[in-house]
Amino acid sequence: MSQVRAKKNLGQHFLTDLNIARRIVDSVQHREVSKVLEVGPGMGVLTQYLIGDDFPKVYPVEIDVESVVYLKEHYPILSDRIYDGDFLKMDFKAFSNEPIVVVGNFPYNISTQIYFKILENRDQVVESVGMIQKEVAERICSSHGSKIYGILSVLLQAFYDVEYLFTVGENVFNPPPKVKSAVIRITRNSNESLPCDEALFYRVVKAIFNQRRKAIRNSLKSVCANVSDLDTEMLQRRPEQMSVSDFIELTCMVEKLIAK
User: Fold this and answer.
1) Which helix (H) or strand (E) is 95 found in, with range?
2) Among 3.50.50.60, 1.10.8.100, 3.10.290.10, 2.40.50.140, what is the CATH number of 198-259?
3) CA 18 to CA 49: how far, in whole Å?
4) Are the beta carbons of 243 and 149 closer than 8 angstroms?
């Protein structure tokens, strides 16, 4: 098989610039101590740099049957390590009890879902270096005060340090996407758990941002009917004015109010 045909329904845009591929792989910090899951390897442009002494435990995750055949032909050393299935449905705990690094030129149509999957498995995923749409990368890495700061910004930054590494143009892909791309790195921080109920934290963050034009006092009524009983100026703010620590503090207040 000479090459793999890019499939629109899988969000495939194959990277063709080897220098960028090398930069992505060089950006991974956790190497010898972790298993590396490469999401959507396609024709192996990143895979070729992940094979070696620096990355002794590489496992490609590929849903495209054509790509799996290609990888087995060109990287036979990985034949018994390829997970030919959907990354979003992967059972991380059944796969391994070791630390995991997630790397890849992520399929654009599921890039946000990939990060939610990482969040679900944050007890194992110590790092991720991924290439995604530039606008999604900017949103993830944005700080409070920014108009693009949102749900994924808060949830990821509660458990990971996020870094915008570099921007990638459209002309280094086949087929070229209609948007610019960017590579970001997220590294697990020291927060093993939150000082509030985590499920409630998620609900608070989502409720507030899903009605981001409203004051927080009004948005939170779907989570806590008597939210007006809270005595805090945070209820007068807009969602983008709230830092991660503010969201945690507010969730602690809501949790106490619900418990009354």
Assistant:
1) helix 92-95
2) 1.10.8.100
3) 9
4) no
Could you report the per-residue pLDDT of 109-168, keeping only the tens digit for each? Answer: 899 999 999 999 999 999 999 999 999 999 999 999 999 999 999 999 999 999 999 999
95 phi and psi, to 5 degrees? -70, -45
pTM for the full predicted model: 0.94
Q: At what angle do helices 244-259 and 198-210 cross, to 10 degrees?
A: 110
Given the candidates 3.40.50.300, 3.40.50.150, 3.40.50.20, 3.40.50.720, the CATH classification of the domain at 8-188 is 3.40.50.150
